[in-house]
Amino acid sequence: GNSVTQMEGPVTLSEEAFLTINCTYTATGYPSLFWYVQYPGEGLQLLLKATKADDKGSNKGFEATYRKETTSFHLEKGSVQVSDSAVYFCALSDPVQGAQKLVFGQGTRLTINP
Amino acid sequence: EAQVTQNPRYLITVTGKKLTVTCSQNMNHEYMSWYRQDPGLGLRQIYYSMNVEVTDKGDVPEGYKVSRKEKRNFPLILESPSPNQTSLYFCASSLRAVLSYNEQFFGPGTRLTVL
Question: Quick one: which of A64, A79, B67, B83 has the most CB atoms within 10 Å?
Fold first, then answer.
């Protein structure tokens, strides 16, 4: 079945550091890939997405590239801020399954210190 | 404002006492879904609905029921809650049911504790 594996957290960085959160996936078809972010006390919100191989999703300084050859969708940001502290979820949606079902990774908690 | 709302936000109950968590969206979305979030497990799908009167099981449906009588509402029913259903629950919706690249919009969550 489909699955998503994220790097284990928690991750703690200083402000202005470079961020990478690794994500790899297993899917039967050609999935769409997503990063969702959950700020403290809130629901999830879409951060970025990519729908086909070699697509790059970007938003708020975050980027991720859909790499079919390595089945990866790593999240990166060049200079993190305290306000980026949150839990980040990698997810996929596989059209082969028909309905729009999201399969999530376990989440990575990120803390940015000033 | 376009949003997904859930009620209640927090609930403490006892084993066996039936409860309903409501979910409503004002975006005329076809697709709605319930997830539970547990530490180290990410989010897992409980039930989903492709449209009015069309529902199906997700990955962890045991102990839950749903209904979709109106497009905007998708309540989650726990007929006889047990402590292993203590979790953080999220409702989500999406414009079209069969487009895998659509964004899902999430509610603020309901934290349920079953004693």
Answer: A64
